[in-house]
Amino acid sequence: MARILIMDDDPNIHHILSAYLVRDGHTVLQAMDGTIGLQLEGEADVLIIDWMMPGVSGVQVIEHLRTQGCVKPVLLLTARSDEGDKLQGLDLGADDYVVKPFSPREVTARIRALIRRAGIKDEITCGTLTVKPQSHQVWVEGREVSLSKLEFDLLLAFLSTPGMVWSRERLLSRVWGSDFPEMDRVVDVHVKNLRRKLQDDPENPTFIETVRGVGYRLREQE
């Protein structure tokens, strides 16, 4: 089952969808606007986003996530039924689209389809590293490792795109969100702590390697 983030400014939508999704076995996170949603996005596997939210709109959220390299499945909720609006949402990066008013059973069915399509798993393995995103547990060679929330979110970011280089700026935006401190040093400190806990030698890394002048990446395992 997946961790699903609902971004919608309507409390009734949260109440109804949460009940159905929890009954399906999912963990539900909630945000009443796009700003909070972007802060919680790193903890979710699948995103349900309302088009018309105050402040940062759903379409702006999707556009931001896709430009930041986020590939998580997105289901867009909207009262707009025009074909042009639907195509706009899909073109910006939504994976599916549901028009309000909707059937909660249809939404949960579409979420199940997105999960199957994305191949979301309860457990992620990378060489000798095993991670369970829902329970926030990490093992290296069978030894459980205790990580802080920021360290865990950093690790999930790396695991989402093995082999891809993450600049410090992108990591700040992804992990710290809109409240991130504008200092590259904070990323270096947390990567250092994460490496230490994973017993990863920075000079001869098994997992996280430094790309000088650019940032960090997770080495692809054979």
From TrEMBL:
Q: Quote the cellular component terms of the Gene Ontology held in the record.
A: cytosol; protein-DNA complex
Stored InterPro entries? CheY-like_superfamily, OmpR/PhoB-type_DNA-bd, Sig_transdc_resp-reg_C-effctor, Sig_transdc_resp-reg_receiver, WalR-like, WH-like_DNA-bd_sf
The yes or no answer to whether the keyword Phosphoprotein is present is: yes
Q: Which residues bind DNA?
A: 121-220
Keyword Secreted part of the UniProt annotation: no
- Residues the record lists as 4-aspartylphosphate modifications: 50
Please name one Pfam family that this protein belongs to: Trans_reg_C
The alphabetized UniProt keywords are:
DNA-binding, Phosphoprotein, Transcription, Transcription regulation, Two-component regulatory system
All copies of domain OmpR/PhoB-type, residue ranges: 121-220
The residues covered by the Response regulatory domain are 3-115
An example molecular function term from Gene Ontology annotations: transcription cis-regulatory region binding
One GO biological-process annotation of the entry reads: regulation of DNA-templated transcription
What protein am I looking at?
A: DNA-binding response regulator
User: Which species is listed as the source?
Assistant: Deinococcus cellulosilyticus (strain DSM 18568 / NBRC 106333 / KACC 11606 / 5516J-15)
- Give the lineage: Bacteria, Thermotogati, Deinococcota, Deinococci, Deinococcales
